[in-house]
Amino acid sequence: MMKMMNVLLIISLVVVISAIDEDRKVFIAYMGFLPEGEYSPSLHHYEILKNVTNPRFARKSLIRSYQRSFNGFSAYLSQEEQQKLAGKFQMHLYICLQKNLLKS
Questions:
Q1: Is 37 within 8 Å of 45 (Cβ atoms)?
Q2: Res 97: pLDDT
Q3: 60-68: long-range pairs with CB below 8 Å, 24+
Q4: How confident is the model over 82-97, as a mean pLDDT?
Q5: Tens of pLDDT along 28-87?
Q6: Mapping DSSP to helix (H, G, I), strand (E, B) and coil, where does residue 99 land?
Q7: Which of 8, 33, 90, 94 could form a disulfide with 28 if both were Cys (CB 3.0 to 4.6 A apart)?
Q8: How confident is the model at residue 34, as a pLDDT?
Q9: Is 96 in contact with 28 (CB distance < 8 Å)?
Q10: What is the CA angle 38-61-79, rounded to 5?
Q11: CA end-to-end distance (rounded Å), the chain
Q12: Alpha helix (H) residue ranges in the chain
């Protein structure tokens, strides 16, 4: 009986997590050129995401920091988080849809 309850608990957690992730899309945030001098893009991008997402989710949200050609990052964001990011930090965001990029 206890084993069955554990299995049901795990299944329900997977369903809840899947439902949360379905609302998120991949966005690329373009922040322009890299600043000169000492600068940690990954840390900066993580700090930005902590301001617009749940701080516990920020690390999981960050997909990649771009730090060679330009300053930016890609992240899983909800529509509300995307709007906060665009408004608060005034950056260009692009949504990834399959193989195409659409500016949002």
A1: no
A2: 56
A3: 61/24, 63/26, 65/41, 66/41, 67/34, 67/41, 67/42
A4: 78
A5: 888 888 888 888 889 999 999 999 998 888 989 999 999 888 889 999 999 899 888 888
A6: coil
A7: 94
A8: 83
A9: yes
A10: 115
A11: 50
A12: 2-22, 41-52, 55-61, 79-89
Q: Is the pTM of this model over 0.70?
A: no
The residue behind tokens 């309850």 is: 5
DSSP secondary structure of 26-43 = EEEEE--SPPSSS--HHH
Domain 24-103 sits in CATH 3.30.70.80: yes
Count of positions (residues) in the chain: 104
Measured N-to-C along each axis, helices 79-89 and 41-52 cross at an angle, to the nearest 10 degrees, of 120
Residues 74 and 28 sit within 8 Å (Cβ to Cβ): yes
Amino acid present at 60? K
Domain positions in the chain are 24-103
Phi/psi of residue 101, nearest 5 degrees:
-115, 130
